Amino acid sequence: MKTRVATLAREKGTPISRSASRKSPAHERAHLEIGAPNSNSLLRQWNGPLTADLTLHPGDFGLGKVPARLRPDATTRLICGYCSTGCSLDIHLQSGVAVNLTPTADYPVNLGMACPKGWEALTPLAAPDRATTPLLRNPKTGKLEPTDWDEAMQVFTLKFKALMDQHGPESVAFLSTGQICTEEMAFAGALWKFGMGALHGDSNTRQCMATSHVAYKQSFGFDAPPYTYADFEESDALVFIGSNLCIAHPILWQRVLRNKKSPEIIVIDPRKTETAMNATQHLAITPKSDITLLYGVANLLIQKGWINREFIERSTTGFVEFAEFVR
């Protein structure tokens, strides 16, 4: 019976199992390596959708080994557009088309790391609803219809020029996204003001951060946070107010975890977030009471004398009025 099974297996090109033949393991290996046809069968699949990716080839460009289908012929760098952390990604190109990415190893922001959002940075390129064609509204039907770029640019420029000729350059404005890098934002502003002659432009970056900018300027004299990412790794205490750093900015949380000083992590947030669950202290205050808490802390510091008066006199203004306000 076993001999018959072995004969059928040879006729159909199926590798002979140990139970169907009395041949030695060495003989079986030689048969598989030399004489077995590499065609799929009911008993064994020689190849499948992921098999090709198991064979790696040198990726060049310092990328190590990559699957053959993703082997790039060039690379370029971009800044991830998902959030404002500013991580750098190396984009792998094939004939100018992005096919894969890796986080930039020596970039000082993400230090060779990428979060799930960064790893998916190329996904929007294949989105079925991605805007790749200009649309013009049909005056008869009122519906948007595809058109070519030449016609779209003609209509766009002529209509904006007509509006500015009639009502002045201050009559139009643009609002850009906050998900483009500084160089592109500068180009958009230059094109709008010097190329088209308009005056007003703004970005979502400023729209969502306007109150923070005002507070920064009033508190520190300039409109930016007074710390660097490296401080996450060096500080003895870290305070997060309303920030779920674990989820919103995972790369920055990774830099917190690199801190070898076992810092005190204080989270002030009504929610029990992932960051709060990993904190040493979680102050679950009532919603919208954060400013009250901060005023109370300021008053306590002043009343207890836990302040540097020399620094205050040298570097601040309006302290007397502030102390009276928070009392």
Keywords:
three-stranded parallel β-sheet, 39% helix, N-terminal domain of TfIIb, 13 helices, three-stranded antiparallel β-sheet, single chain, 327 residues, alpha/beta, 12 strands
Structural write-up:
- With 327 residues, the chain is of the alpha/beta class.
- 39% of the residues lie in helices and 16% in strands.
- Among the domains are: 2-35, no CATH class; 56-124, N-terminal domain of TfIIb; 286-327, no CATH class.
- The protein has helices at 2-12, 25-35, 116-119, 149-167, 182-195, 204-220, 231-234, 245-248, 250-257, 274-277, 290-304, 309-315, 319-326, and strands at 56-58, 65-67, 74-79, 88-94, 97-103, 135-137, 144-146, 173-176, 200-203, 237-241, 264-268, 281-283.
- The strands form 5 sheets. It has a 3-stranded antiparallel sheet with strand order 3-4-5, with no helix packed on it. Strands 10-11-12 form a 3-stranded parallel sheet.
- The longest helix is centred in the middle third of the chain and has 19 residues, at 149-167.
- It is flat and about 80 Å long.
Briefly, what is this?
This protein is an alpha/beta fold and 327 residues long. Helix content is 39%, strand content 16%. It is flat and about 80 Å long.
Write the layout of secondary structure elements.
Elements (H helix, E strand, L loop, with lengths): L1 H11 L12 H11 L20 E3 L6 E3 L6 E6 L8 E7 L2 E7 L12 H4 L15 E3 L6 E3 L2 H19 L5 E4 L5 H14 L4 E4 H17 L10 H4 L2 E5 L3 H4 L1 H8 L6 E5 L5 H4 L3 E3 L6 H15 L4 H7 L3 H8 L1
